[in-house]
Every structure is written in C-alpha cells, then in structure tokens.
Amino acid sequence: ELARTTHGFVGADIAALAREAAIDAVRRIMPKLDFEQQTVPQEVLDDLRVEREDFVKALKRVQPSAMREVMVQAPTVGWADIGGLDDAQEKLREGVELPLKNPDAFHRLGIRPAKGFLLYGPPGTGKTLLAKAVAKEAEANFIAIKSSDLLSKWYGESEQQIARLFARARQVAPCIVFIDEIDSLVPARGSGQGEPQVTARVVNTILAEMDGLEELQSVIVIGATNRPNLVDPALLRPGRFDELVYVGTPSVEGRARILGIHTKAMPLAGDVDLGKIAAATDRFTGADLEDVVRRAGLNAIRRAGGEVREVTAADFADALEDSRATVTLQMEEEYGRMKGELK
Ligand code: ADP
C-alpha cells in the first residue's frame, strides 16, 4: 500500500518518509519531546513500533522532490523526428512556433495568438512528441506535467504546485507547458484518481492561471488526451484549450517515414523494404512501429548473437508476427466520430 501511495517518490523521499514516520511514532508516546534539544530514551526506542497511522501522518508532510521542483527541459526532438502528422505539425507551426518566435510581429498587427492547444487522439500517436518538437523548433523551454500527478492526494497542495509551475514557466519564457491526460481533470465524475473537490480545485486553478496568461507573454499551454469526449467542457471554452488538434494513426506514407526515422541508426539488410512493412501495418501508431523496429533488432541479435551485422527482412517478418495495432477499427471509427463532434 505504501509503495502504491508513494508514486513519484525517489529514494531520498522514501528515506525522509521513514524518518518522519518514526518521529511521529515517538511523538505518540512522548508528545512533549523536543527533538531539537533532547534525545529519545533508549527504553522508548526499544519498544517503538511504527504504525500505519504514523505513515499516514508523515505522508501529509513529505512530498516527492519532483513535485517540489518544477523541472524545465530543453527538448532535443524536432520536426525531423516526427513521421506523418502533417496537419498537426502545420497547426502547431502556425499557432505556437510562429508567435513564440515573432512576438513583435503579432503585437504590431494586434493578432492574439492562442494560449491553449488540445492534442487528442489514440495513445502512442505522437502527441507528446509533437509538443516537445514544437518547443524545440520554437526555441522554447518545456515543462511537462501529468494531470493524474496533480490529483494524487499525497502530493497535497495541488494549487500551490500549479501556481509554482506557471510562475516558473513565465520565468523561463518562451515556454510550453505540457499537461498530459487532461481528461482525468473531470470533477463531477471523479476519475478514481483524486477526490472530486481536489479535482475541481485543480481545474479552477489551471483555468485561473490560463486566464491570467497575458497574450504575448510567450507561455503556451498544450494539453493532451486519448479521451476527448471526457474532457471537462470548462477547459475547452474560448481563451483556454480552444485550439483542437487531432493526432491520428499515420497513413501508409506516414508509417514509412516513421519506420525510416526509427531505423536511422540500424544497419538494414538489402532485402528490407520499409514501404512493404508500412503497407502491412494498417492502424499501427508511431509507438507500435517503434516497437516493431525494436523487436526486429532483438530478433537479429537472437539470431546472430554478438556477430550481428544487419537486420534482415526475416527479422522484421518475425517481429510483425508478434505485433498488433493498438488501435482497433472500432476505436478508429470512434475517434472519427469525436473529431466530427468537436469541430
Ligand atoms: P502519445 O503522447 O500520443 O501517447 P508519444 O508521443 O508519447 O505518444 O509516442 C511514444 C513514442 O512513439 C515516441 O516517443 C516516439 O518514439 C514514437 N512515435 C509516436 N508517434 C510517432 C511519430 N508520428 N513519428 C515518430 N515516432 C513516433
């Protein structure tokens, strides 16, 4: 149970938690003890048992260090690392890269760039990749957060964390704030993740922060979701995540490009035809294709051991045998429908 409730804790955080729980256990027995001035008597230590309640109390104070500090990244992937998704790339180039790179031009013309984009589509299609790539191409910083992390009750102080996140983003602007799993921020339904009140507060804090983002302050928020139909409508209103970008499964040309990208560093035998593999991988996502390449590489190593020189068509054929598209026909139809409804 402890392991589960300490999601996001690093080793040092767990050590701090154990220490705090032990302190709480001593406090139960010696409420008046001053830890700064006095040592705990040996007979108390001999009988000391750290109970569940001590950990529960300690968890309220100890936060994972990753949440205390906002991690600013400078992404290394760019447009060249993305296969297919031409429409989505185009939208992000115009809506994010252009205004972040030319704020003065937008200002002179009195054009307000959008503050929030919502990338939606099946998992593994490259939403996170797109957000990172647009940050790199716009020469912007990148701060990423998972919505479920904001709701995790042990993190506590979600509002403060969000405020810190946006403050940091303004400091390091131009900056992209990437919020993944935005569908888990639905107060009414709860998502099994946070308590409904916590969720409502998190949503309101994010909205307030976004409302407070002056246009041209060079902070743009990109949200992502696999379940656009579950996203809180409050998040989609004008001035918030009002630019919707569909990120779907790649076309056959897109798949060939993606296979090319992921085999860049792989010596391929002359008989490997990426176009043919692309044709045989209908509905495969970028992540699925990356996995096919990885499996083919492993097959080559298994076959040739340390002597492996190249990856052959047979290695790919075996890899395809073991692979399946994550996105089913039915899912694809559903996304098509949602796309129509969200327009
Ligand atoms: P999502 O955020 O949509 O769930 P990700 O961006 O996390 O998907 O994709 C996971 C991984 O799959 C990426 O890091 C990348 O290696 C690969 N991938 C997914 N889509 C593409 C794509 N269009 N082009 C190249 N690689 C891709």
Instruction: Report the biggest beta sheet as strand number plus sense, adding barrel if it closes.
Output: 5 strands, parallel
Shape: globular
Instruction: State the separation between the terminal residues, measured CA to CA.
Output: 43 Å
| Share in helix | 40-55%
List the keywords.
single chain; 343 residues; alpha/beta; five-stranded parallel β-sheet; 16 helices; 5 strands; globular; binds adenosine-5'-diphosphate; Transitional endoplasmic reticulum ATPase
How would you sum up this structure, described in words?
There is one protein chain. This protein has 343 residues and is an alpha/beta fold. Helices cover 50% and strands 8% of the residues. The chain contains 16 helices and five strands. Strands 2-3-4-1-5 form a five-stranded parallel β-sheet, with helices on both faces. Adenosine-5'-diphosphate binds next to helix 8, helix 12 and helix 14.
Short recap of the structure:
The protein has helices at residues 2-5, 11-29, 42-47, 52-61, 65-68, 86-101, 103-109, 127-137, 147-151, 158-171, 196-212, 252-262, 274-279, 286-304, 313-321, 329-342; strands spanning 116-120, 141-146, 175-180, 219-225, 243-246.
